[in-house]
DNA sequence: GTGCAGTGATTGCTACAGCAAAGATTGCAC
DNA sequence: GTGCAATCTTTGCTGTAGCAATCACTGCAC
């Protein structure tokens, strides 16, 4: 019989693990995960989580401060059931409220409240500073930030084309979504 | 009552949301999230999840095909309790096994089995192809892949310096969340 | 040897998110 | 008007991951 433990590792097998693509993917995973952890710790000081921040920022950016639950889901990489529960939590804290749609009784709008806007105004500067410190700053030091943005946008367009399209609905989606 | 919906948005408030840093962070989040979803769907065909893949690949890359639970945790952005359960699942499927350490009875090694290596050999080519299609390919089209790698490595070094260093070594006197 | 601080792995508890199903409503075909 | 497919949201169930506590062991001081 052949020696089981050490034998089966052919050169072609090991070579797979040396692939540069794996390195890039690994670096991206480590970076993003750590970035989220930092952001999460900072946002926790304001009493919200990363996904809650994500929902609030979409609402705050929306012209009328409201979005349909479905659109929130499309814009935030959270499923519709997830949005239901996130909005539940935010509503309990008075950061958003639900509002019925006058023309279609199936749809529910999530609306950011004054309190929600205040929290965003308090949390955003620190968040931007963090992004500057750990993402855009280092990127700029190793190359051109605009180039990086173009690269990552290209990736996004390829892997999540739906996210690039503007949010559907009655609201004027002005520029290409970012 | 005061006009709740439209009044409180000063120019300086809106300006925060137009910040380019938010755009880059958003693009990165969408890209990475979608990338993970694609990878997860593909790996599901092989019966494993993304974190299970992450653990298996670390073990497969390790010279002896084994790592201490703690080291696995350090290398995979999963907490030690998370590693315990992931290894539980993998062990039930015969992809890894636990092995006691001869010199320190506290430590447990996770060891990749022959079956685990076979699964990796089956899953890796498709995974690499996917990374090529959705990450390195598009990046290369929008610029230089080496530049991108340097940028993202710079980010990683800044935000997760521990991951860059070898897994061994005493923890630097650490203040965790800053 | 005994005691004690430090390290490694596991477990109880909890929170969160996805999937699939259900409930409610709409618009369309006839 | 009735029936039916599609749409929007919510809910039940389940799987997973983190935190903090616990158990086991080591190495050191005395």
Write the layout of secondary structure elements.
The structure is a homodimer of 178-residue chains.
Chain A: H1 11-17, H2 20-44, H3 50-61, E1 66-68, H4 69-76, H5 80-92, E2 96-100, E3 108-112, H6 114-142, H7 145-159, H8 161-164
Antiparallel strand pairs in A: 1-3, 2-3
Chain A binds a DNA duplex (30 and 30 nucleotides) through α5.
Structure description:
2 copies of one chain form a homodimer. Chain A has helices at 11-17, 20-44, 50-61, 69-76, 80-92, 114-142, 145-159, 161-164, and strands spanning 66-68, 96-100, 108-112. Chain A is mainly α. A 3-stranded antiparallel beta sheet of chain A has the order 1-3-2. In chain A, α2 packs antiparallel against α6 (114-142) and α4 (69-76) crosses α5 (80-92). At the A-B interface, α1, α2, α3, α6 and α7 of A face α1, α2, α3, α6 and α7 of B.
Features:
63% helix; globular; DNA-binding; three-stranded antiparallel beta sheet; 178 residues; disordered N terminus; 8 helices; homodimer; mainly alpha; 7% strand
Short structural description:
The first copy, chain A, has eight helices and three strands.
